[in-house]
Write a structure and sequence with these properties.
The protein is α/β, with parallel strands linked by helices and about 280 residues long. The protein has six helices and eleven strands. The protein has helices spanning about 65-75, 135-140, 165-175, 185-195, 220-245, 265-275, and strands at about 5, 20-25, 35-40, 45-50, 80-90, 100, 105, 150, 155-160, 180, 200-205. β9, α3 and β10 (about 180) form a beta-alpha-beta unit.
Length: about 280
């Protein structure tokens, strides 16, 4: 197995860990958000990409999700931990807490490339269970290493952004039963399923969105993010070795996804499928 980490808002580097090398990976879908770093902790190597690019210059709708996931797959990644900043839609999920969703609600607007299967290749995967529960168990086993509250299970609703919600929208999302709100985990999580990669999110709660009668500025959100960053780095120091030691395996949902006849596939399409379905 090989592990990949996708860093979200505030997590632009993992400078507490040893860097082995920095890689420029080419994909048929364009360039990833950043160079992919090979890092090491306790002799366990893994790959890291920053979702918004170095310096946070890529907006959620402009992220090349397909290139990020394909590049990690090309490097042999079998498991991904996503680090993401979110707002809370529930009183008990407080700013500063860590939240591990097990479901997603896609409320984006169709601006994002959300599938590897297009342009003459038809494939269907189930995203009924987009989160690897085996990875979540590994997170549970090391949660006591970090001084913050953890919440397991619930829905992450993904909006287009980059604006935050209106009050009416926030109340609507709460009526869905969603627990947190973010802007990046769809289509990222669904693409991981298409690529046969086990995926789990560690969501860093920054605020109560706008449903709660508490004004919250970008500066306040950023302050909570900065506080969470040191906690997530501490979590990863313990989580990465644990994942490798657990040797979790996941059933790949993409094994029988492609329905297009092989005789209709171009050489380039087959090369892409060989990597995705390997």
């Amino acid at each position: 197995m090989k592990l990949g980490i996708i860093g979200g808002s505030g997590v632009y580097d993992l400078d507490i860990l040893e860097e082995v090398e920095s890689l420029e990976i080419q994909t048929p879908f364009g360039e990833p958000s950043s160079k992919i770093k090979k890092l090491k902790v306790s002799d366990y190597e893994f790959f890291f990409v920053t979702r918004h690019g170095v310096g946070h210059h890529i907006s959620p709708s402009d992220i090349n999700y397909r290139a990020n996931i394909f590049a990690l797959k090309k490097l042999g990644v079998t498991h991904i931990i996503s680090i993401s900043a979110v707002g809370s839609l529930k009183e008990e999920v407080a700013p500063g807490d860590f939240f591990m969703p097990d479901q997603f609600i896609d409320w984006t607007k169709g601006l994002r490339k959300r599938s590897f299967f297009e342009d003459g290749i038809v494939g269907h995967v189930s995203v009924a269970q987009p989160i690897s529960l085996e990875l979540v168990e590994s997170i549970k086993s090391v949660q006591n290493k970090v001084d913050t509250n953890f919440h397991f299970g619930g829905s992450y609703i993904c909006i287009e952004g980059p604006q935050y919600s209106s009050r009416a929208e926030s109340e609507l999302y709460r009526s869905f039963g969603a627990s947190v709100i973010g802007m990046t985990n769809v289509p990222e999580s669904y693409l991981s399923v298409e690529a046969g990669i086990a995926y789990a999110t560690v969501a860093l709660v920054t605020d109560y969105d706008c449903w709660k009668d508490e004004a919250c500025s970008l500066e306040e959100i950023t302050a909570v993010i900065n506080k969470n960053v040191s906690n997530v780095k501490e979590l990863l120091k313990h989580l990465i070795p644990k994942i490798y030691q657990d040797k979790k395996s996941s059933e790949k949902a993409n094994l029988n996804a492609v329905v297009t006849d092989k005789s209709l596939r171009t050489k380039e399409q087959q090369e892409i499928l060989d990597i995705l379905l390997n």
